[in-house]
Amino acid sequence: MKNGKALFARAAFVLVLLAIGGVMMVIGRGHTVYLDNKKLEYNGQTYGTPYKVEVYVNGEKVAKLYDRERGMATCIGQTFRMTLDITQEKGGDKTTQSYTIQLPYNMDGVIINLPAYLAGLGEDAYLSEFIPSPEEAVPEETETPGGEEGFEMPSMEESTEMPSST
Amino acid sequence: MEEKKSFGAAALEFASNNIVPILFVVICAVCIPLSGFSVSYLLNEIVTRMGRNIFLILCLLIPIMAGMGLNFAMTLGAMAGEIALIFVADWQIWGIPGVVLAMILQIPFSILLGLLCGSILNRAKGREMITSYIISFFLNGLYQLVVLFMMGPIIPIKHFSIKLPRGYGIRNTVSLLNMRQCLDNVFAVTIGGVKIPVLTFLIIAVLCLFIVWFRKTKLGQDMRAVGQDMEVARDAGIHVERTRLISIVISTVMAGFGMIIYLQNMGNIATYSSHSQIGMFCIAALLVGGASVDRASIGNVFLGVILFHTMFIVAPRAGAAITGDSMIGEYFRVFCSYGVITIALVMYETKKRRNKSKTAQELARAAAEETAKEAAK
């Protein structure tokens, strides 16, 4: 009986950990959001760009976009909230509006076309996946840095090199 | 006169018992002014390193309590933590959720590795430290096999930024930029230019409380009994092997948590080297704090981190000031960290032998007196 209780408690503990892990996977999913201020041709119609769009995420200005410019922001979770200061014409008035966009879980990089989004088009028009080319994604391989605290000793082969400093 | 003499003897005994911390206090006292660092810079660095390292060092206390000496196999937990972080980085889970997920993910790996290590150490009683040291080398090879060859073709890893250009294996460095210092920045306060990572210190405080509480539990008492004398503990009905196994498993799991806290602070994983030196330097820091192979406390951990890392911070600049070459300071601090382990181990062994011979002499004297008494009768 005592063993049964202990087993039940352990199973419950494991289930709680799994549940927490599952929740973390959903709420912690990170996305890089690319914001394009580019003209869009969609269903034979052209959606022009505003003169200037200033993008704020969490109260912080992340981009100031003129025609054909791209900005970038990061987002943890699937809900991306941004505030846009839009100036339609040069020297014109600025309008401020907040927007919330649901991001797909499976996309690491998401491109949002602002003219299409502001025109109220569907997700297929304003949202696409950012797929980096392998050449872009792969930075130059570097030597194992290690020793961020200056801990490592040089190996026998590289005994003339110094351990890295803090 | 008698009182003065006893005070001198007491002072000498205190000095001989605390030679390593005293030596480090002297080194720091000499090096700090020479380094020319401002007080706020030094404090900032020390506080950052305390937040980064203390959790890892605390994981060494439980095996010491169980009489298993310094657990060089804490690197196993560090490896488990790194593997969990590699997965989390590949799945793109950022920030605190990423850290929490990595902590949960590392638990089964750490338990498995801890069980393996503990059962081997149970077969090598009395030689735990050297055995755990060699186990860490053996499992480092296994870790490299998994990370270098199995991640990609067998274990799915999809991100280009993590995989080697050849298509399998993990890069030398995995970026944790999206979770860098995410724990440290929560509730962080800056006092006089010194950033205090409040949440990290709270986590450390919880672990300290856990250790204090654990010592008072039945299992904790069993561990202390096993640590003092295995045979007596066995006669008292304590399952010695199981108790020792649990102590290593707890230490390994804690080391995994500690490694994740350490790496979130650093902001990247040096995939093939982060774990390999962590054991050595955590042990060095603990010994610098005045701990020994069979006795260590939370106070030793804090004092050790402060002294050891102060030396690490100031030594290169002090070396440059003294010799005109900062490389001397670099070598000096590495030399010190290995040297202190050697000194502590030699001192422990000397003390143990001295005590053993003292006990043997007392026993021989008692036996001789007994024989003399019997002869007189």
Can you walk me through this structure?
The complex is a heterodimer of chains A (166) and B (377). Chain A has a domain at 31-132: Immunoglobulin-like (Sandwich), CATH 2.60.40. Helix content of chain A is 23%, strand content 36%. Chain A has helices spanning 2-27, 114-118, 123-126, 134-137; strands at residues 30-37, 40-42, 45-47, 52-57, 60-65, 69-76, 79-87, 94-102, 109-113, 127-129. In chain A, the strands form 3 sheets. In chain A, strands 6-1-9-10 form a 4-stranded mixed sheet. In chain A, 22% of the residues are buried. Chain B has 377 residues and is mainly alpha-helical. Chain B has one domain (37-342): Orthogonal Bundle (ABC transporter involved in vitamin B12 uptake, BtuC). Chain B has helices at residues 2-17, 19-35, 39-58, 61-65, 74-90, 95-122, 128-150, 198-216, 218-228, 230-235, 240-266, 274-288, 298-323, 326-376, and strands spanning 173-175, 189-191, 194-196, 268-270. Chain B has a two-stranded antiparallel sheet with strand order 1-4. In chain B, strand 2 and strand 3 (194-196) form a beta hairpin. In chain B, helix 3 (39-58) packs parallel to helix 8, helix 3 packs antiparallel against helix 11 and helix 5 packs across helix 12. Classes of the chains: A alpha+beta (166), B mainly alpha (377). At the A-B interface, helix 1 of A face helix 6, helix 12, helix 13 and helix 14 of B.
